[in-house]
Amino acid sequence: MPEQACEPQWLCAADALRDGGDAVLFDVVEFGRTVQAFAVRHQGRAVAYLNRCAHVPAEMDWQPGKFWDQERRHLICSVHGALYDPPSGQCVSGPCVGARLHAVRLDERDGQLYWYPTDRLQPVSA
After folding, report:
1. How far apart, in whole angstroms, are the C-alpha atoms of residue 58 and residue 51?
2. Per-residue pLDDT tens over the stretch 25-69
3. How far is the C-alpha of 17 from the C-alpha of 88, rounded, in Å?
4. What is the DSSP string of 39-95?
5. Residue 69's CATH number
6. CA of residue 38 relative to chain centroid, distance
7. Is residue 58 part of a domain?
8. Closest by alpha carbon to 31, among 103, 122, 105?
9. Residue 104's domain spans which residues?
10. Is 126 part of any domain?
11. Which of 19, 23, 94, 114 could connect to 65 by a Cys-Cys bridge, CB 3.0–4.6 Å?
12. Bridge partners for 36 per DSSP
């Protein structure tokens, strides 16, 4: 089924994401349930994923917005120790090697970040 074209949703000012810094957390509705997503910046590029390990559906951050391993090279699941490649969301080490985080499409323009709803992910109603 093709994804619906939806209006981009403002997330934050682009400078709120620093390379290897804390994530910006935001809520989305997935299949009728509110779930958490996060955005981080890695090597200048902003990326976003659902806050859910590909191994077992548990939130990954070890404290709110803290997703980086010690070297700030990979995203790490605090529950299972799985390491994820930030640009692709692919698990590169741990119990789910080869699996991927669910990406949330981002767009950075005019100093702002926006995320795009899909058939699967919708904005939380006000």
Report:
1. 8
2. 999 999 999 999 999 999 999 999 999 999 888 899 989 999 999
3. 18
4. EEEETTEEEEEES--SSSS----SBTTB-B-TTSSSEE-TTT--EE-TTT-BEEEST
5. 2.102.10.10
6. 4
7. yes
8. 122
9. 9-121
10. no
11. 23
12. 27
